[in-house]
């Protein structure tokens, strides 16, 4: 690109990014792929970029995080440009709206309310304010407004938190563990029935596990990401040891791989 292009006359940073997206979406001179996109087609990329941000944070890959956050910011700008084209909103109105919301939800910082309260009390106040906002938007039922596009584990957690706020919750983990045992028995019984029955019971187990995680103050998404990373790390070491023996997963038996897995696991736990 020539530096004589008018894009270089736009201030660097967010203003230039917004102009880049406007140019990409220009129906006459833009990018054919970008022009064809809409909210539905871009939404999966937005979700993917959010997960890549979370992954960089989980791995403490600070050198990657700036780039991942930029990719996520691009998604906001993309939706803002499509919103502007449709006459709904733009990046500026998005920013103004979220700014007003944050000011409104923090009267202890931007208003006259005292800051002399615990983080727990501030969390309760935040949830109460969000509940008032939902009522104002026409959401009347307890579970209204929990986004259906969230990852299933995260959505289960949010649904359960809503239910807990109205008292539909166990007081401790004892009944949750009993429910888990019950659901495991029902899953075993469902194996002789239809695939739908098995899937239904399996979903019940996952929902109960999320409930257990909530009672133990564990983020189920973070816990599963941690386990995924652990499996990747350990199996990579299994592959390395097989390679040192002149073998590979395709050539090794399950017993051989399982023995190496146990060895790697034992070594990790001893360090």
UniProtKB/TrEMBL annotation:
<dbReference type="InterPro" id="IPR004518">
    <property type="entry name" value="MazG-like_dom"/>
</dbReference>
<dbReference type="InterPro" id="IPR048015">
    <property type="entry name" value="NTP-PPase_MazG-like_N"/>
</dbReference>
<dbReference type="GO" id="GO:0047693">
    <property type="term" value="F:ATP diphosphatase activity"/>
</dbReference>
<dbReference type="Pfam" id="PF03819">
    <property type="entry name" value="MazG"/>
</dbReference>
<dbReference type="GO" id="GO:0046047">
    <property type="term" value="P:TTP catabolic process"/>
</dbReference>
<dbReference type="GO" id="GO:0046052">
    <property type="term" value="P:UTP catabolic process"/>
</dbReference>
<feature type="domain" description="NTP pyrophosphohydrolase MazG-like">
    <location>
        <begin position="37"/>
        <end position="110"/>
    </location>
</feature>
<dbReference type="GO" id="GO:0006203">
    <property type="term" value="P:dGTP catabolic process"/>
</dbReference>
<dbReference type="InterPro" id="IPR048011">
    <property type="entry name" value="NTP-PPase_MazG-like_C"/>
</dbReference>
<dbReference type="InterPro" id="IPR011551">
    <property type="entry name" value="NTP_PyrPHydrolase_MazG"/>
</dbReference>
<dbReference type="GO" id="GO:0046061">
    <property type="term" value="P:dATP catabolic process"/>
</dbReference>
<dbReference type="GO" id="GO:0046076">
    <property type="term" value="P:dTTP catabolic process"/>
</dbReference>
<comment type="similarity">
    <text>Belongs to the nucleoside triphosphate pyrophosphohydrolase family.</text>
</comment>
<feature type="region of interest" description="Disordered">
    <location>
        <begin position="109"/>
        <end position="140"/>
    </location>
</feature>
<dbReference type="GO" id="GO:0006950">
    <property type="term" value="P:response to stress"/>
</dbReference>
<feature type="domain" description="NTP pyrophosphohydrolase MazG-like">
    <location>
        <begin position="177"/>
        <end position="234"/>
    </location>
</feature>
<dbReference type="GO" id="GO:0046081">
    <property type="term" value="P:dUTP catabolic process"/>
</dbReference>
<protein>
    <recommendedName>
        <fullName>Nucleoside triphosphate pyrophosphohydrolase</fullName>
        <ecNumber>3.6.1.8</ecNumber>
    </recommendedName>
</protein>
């Amino acid at each position: 690109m020539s530096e004589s292009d008018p894009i270089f006359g736009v201030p660097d940073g967010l203003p230039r990014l917004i102009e880049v997206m406007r140019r990409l979406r220009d129906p006459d001179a833009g990018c054919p792929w970008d022009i064809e996109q809409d909210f539905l087609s871009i939404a999966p990329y937005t979700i993917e970029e959010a997960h890549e941000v979370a992954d960089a944070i989980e791995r403490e890959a600070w050198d990657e995080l700036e780039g991942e956050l930029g990719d996520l910011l691009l998604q906001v700008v993309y939706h803002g440009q499509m919103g502007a084209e449709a006459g709904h909103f733009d990046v500026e109105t998005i920013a103004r709206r979220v700014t007003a919301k944050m000011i409104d939800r923090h009267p202890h910082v931007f208003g006259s309310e005292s800051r002399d309260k615990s983080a727990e009390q501030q969390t309760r106040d935040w949830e109460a304010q969000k509940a008032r906002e939902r009522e104002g938007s026409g959401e009347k039922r307890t579970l209204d407004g929990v986004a259906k596009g969230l990852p299933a584990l995260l959505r289960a957690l949010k649904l359960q938190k809503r239910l807990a706020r109205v008292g539909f919750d166990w007081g401790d983990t004892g009944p949750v563990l009993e429910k888990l045992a019950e659901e495991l028995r029902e899953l075993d019984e469902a194996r002789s029935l239809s695939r739908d029955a098995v899937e239904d019971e399996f979903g019940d187990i996952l929902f109960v596990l999320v409930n257990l995680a909530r009672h133990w103050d564990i983020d189920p998404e973070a816990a599963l990401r941690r386990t995924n990373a652990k499996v990747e790390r350990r199996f990579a070491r299994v592959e390395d040891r097989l390679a040192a023996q002149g073998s590979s997963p395709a050539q090794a038996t399950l017993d051989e791989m399982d023995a190496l897995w146990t060895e790697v696991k034992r070594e990790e736990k001893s360090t």
